Amino acid sequence: MKILVVGSGGREHAICSAFLKSSKVKEIFCANGNAGIAAIAETVDIRPDNIPALADLAEAKGINLTFVGGETSLALGIVDEFESRGLKIIGASKAAARLEASKAFAKDFMARHQIPTAAYVVANSIEEAKAALEHGRFVDENSPVVVKADGLAAGKGVVVAATRAEAIDALGELESIAGKEASSRIVLEECLIGREVSLILFCDGENFAMMPPTRDHKRIGEGDTGPNTGGMGTITDAALLSADQTAEIVETVIKPTLNGCREEGFPFRGILFLGLMMTPNGPKVLEYNVRFGDPETQSILVRLETDIVDICEAMLSGTLDQTDIKWRSGNSACVILAAENYPGRPRTGDGINGLESAGQHADVSIFHAGTTKDDEGRFVTAGGRVLGVTAVGDDLDSALKNAYEAAAEISWPGMQYRRDIGK
Q1: Residue boundaries of the structural domains of the chain
Q2: pLDDT at 181
Q3: Distances (CA, A) of 332 to 298, 364, 408
Q4: Containing H/E element for 243?
Q5: Cα 66 from Cα 44, distance rounded (Å)
Q6: Closest residue by Cα to residue 189 from 146, 224, 232, 156
Q7: Most buried pick, 113, 283, 381, 386, via CB within 10 A?
């Protein structure tokens, strides 16, 4: 069969690699891909937001299955367009994608369905949000506040402010960080205290299957310091959630979410990402994503043993409850190697050294995110997050050791990465 993967980052490289392992897959296309993906798939120069052109491509190439990597295509309705043409596709519908595309919609959805989450206020402008803070209608002046742009902002639309004054300052910078459209509405939230965990699900509209729980490291600096990024590394670790905690999440979060989607007319089919805070009062939802995370995908899919085509077919046919999904035992870790100045405007065009030797390490996979090739055929940096060095191991320490040993062999001017992933 022929597969089309939509997207261009490390997540999409990992997805393409998972399909490459399937004996059922004969050809993989990726729109628009990157230099690393081009080694295993035919890359096509169509942007993920050009929905009609992607559907035309799928028809012209006889694509049997399309898998959507990122949120933008989903929010624009790629699934609705493909399904209207009779094309098979994995992803959330445009209606379901509102769970990620609008923070305000997601918070109101959780309120309607009694799904535990932080207390919040929705403001329709930056001025209205400032007024809510200044007049004490939300939190007292010394309490931390989470400031969120309502719309999609590539993982950069959230600021955790230590005080009310800091939150007001953050509002003044939100438009330049997240963009005018994303910050046209603002969500203010109480700052939840606890341990953050991500849980990602395969969903078929009725049934779900959980992937290994993961933990992401968002801030650029070690010790969780500095500004938020798209993610500087992840681990998978069953110890992140106890059996009792998992059962509570199923009953208080997963079932009400999927039931709510059905009740509101958009059964959820695709990948559902739950960002959770494990508080003293139980699990609470920080956010929904309607697709694989990046770099969570890298650390999850290197452990997948079941054919991903079989899982996709089960999602499409509504038979996930009859599908036994197997995962490699142990742990995994992904360490992001980023360009100089990231998460600001990154330096690009630097030659990447050591890729070949690093890729020869046992139990290591190197996923490309921001790379291209120069005129001499060398890999060079082309984005903020450049590579995801990903490894498996019998335990977390060995997975981290494998990833960091491979990462140490890679270099380019200004390369930066965190050395405390998994700590």
Answers
A1: 2-93, 125-184, 195-322, 331-407
A2: 72
A3: 9, 10, 17
A4: helix 243-249
A5: 14
A6: 146
A7: 386
- Provide the CATH topology of domain 195-322: D-amino Acid Aminotransferase; Chain A, domain 1 (3.30.470)
Q: What is the mean pLDDT of each run of 10 residues along the chain (423 residues)?
A: 98 98 98 97 97 98 98 97 98 98 96 96 87 72 84 76 83 73 82 94 98 96 91 96 98 98 98 97 96 97 98 98 97 98 96 97 97 96 98 98 98 98 93
What's the topology of domain 331-407?
A: Glycinamide Ribonucleotide Synthetase; Chain A, domain 4 (3.90.600)
pLDDT score, position 139: 64
Confidence (pLDDT) at 155:
65
Six token digits for residue 408: 């140490």
Dist CA 404 CA 16 (whole Å): 24
129-176 pLDDT, tens per residue?
888 888 766 666 678 888 888 888 766 678 888 888 888 888 877 777
Q: Are both 2-93 and 195-322 of the same fold?
A: no
Q: Which CATH number applies to 2-93?
A: 3.40.50.20
